[in-house]
Amino acid sequence: MRDLKNGRHTSRVNDMGNGAYRSARRENVGVPSRAGVRAENRRRRRRRALLIFYILLFVTVISSAAVLSLTVLFKIDSVEVTGTSRYSQEQIKSACGIKTGENLFLAKTKQAEKKIQSSLPYIGSVKVKRKFPAGISIQVSEAKVCGAVEYSKKYAVLSEDFRVLELADKLPQNCPPIKGITLKSAKIGNKADFANKSLQTSLTDVENAVKKNGLGKITGLDFSRTSAITLNYDGRVTINLGMPSGLDYKILYAKALFDHGNIKDTEKGVLNLSTVEDNDTAYFDPDTTS
């Protein structure tokens, strides 16, 4: 009997124990052990350390390359000048301010362009470029002259964009005088300041029309009367444009008359185009005094 009771008791204990153990085992499925957690943490710390190391290595390499580029590599060994200009290559190189031996990346190309135009006003356009691996290229062109305006007992010679190219004591050769226009200020290398902005606009419009339609041999311009703007052609024909309107048509009409021989190469006089827009007719009054 004792054995039977013990057997039953043992069986129940075992059953309870087995049930408890089985239940415990089911509850711990998927839960890492402490050793596993510590190993995973060590792996994470190792990956984080490697990431930081590679980042620092990358930054160090880039910084070293930048330092080398700015101190040892890419030193300028040549400055080349191309294009046409009245100035010598040495004058242009000196004006740009960039020297051989300087770092190519530290060269201030835009500032060099401004220096060249301010100190050498007859430079019309200038482009300064880096030329790898160790050169500077300067491309220039001559400024085109618009004409000369009297200013402070001198002649302010203007470019097509109205920069002051020089202040001459007398009218330069082959430079058309511009009458009827007053300048408030004229500083060499800078744009002229016109006293009358509407006259500046008229001058711009006339210059554009002349250039666009290819009328050459202009030897003078007069804006003294805004209702009768005149051009002097080849020193012998005064062209009366009238008001500053329809300028393209007027200039093209005048060019056709000269090109087709309607006005001979030897003739002098006044060509009136003031009403050509209205009646498609120009009037030429020849000078018979000479």
TrEMBL record:
Gene3D superfamilies: membrane protein fhac
Main location: membrane
Domain POTRA: 74-143
Alphabetically ordered keywords of this record: Cell cycle, Cell division, Cell membrane, Membrane, Transmembrane, Transmembrane helix
Alphabetical GO biological process terms: cell division
Region (Disordered): 1-40
Pfam families to which the protein is assigned, alphabetical: POTRA_1
Superkingdom in the source lineage: Bacteria
Spans through the membrane: 51-74
Subcellular location as annotated: Membrane
Protein name: Cell division protein DivIB
Record gene name: divIB
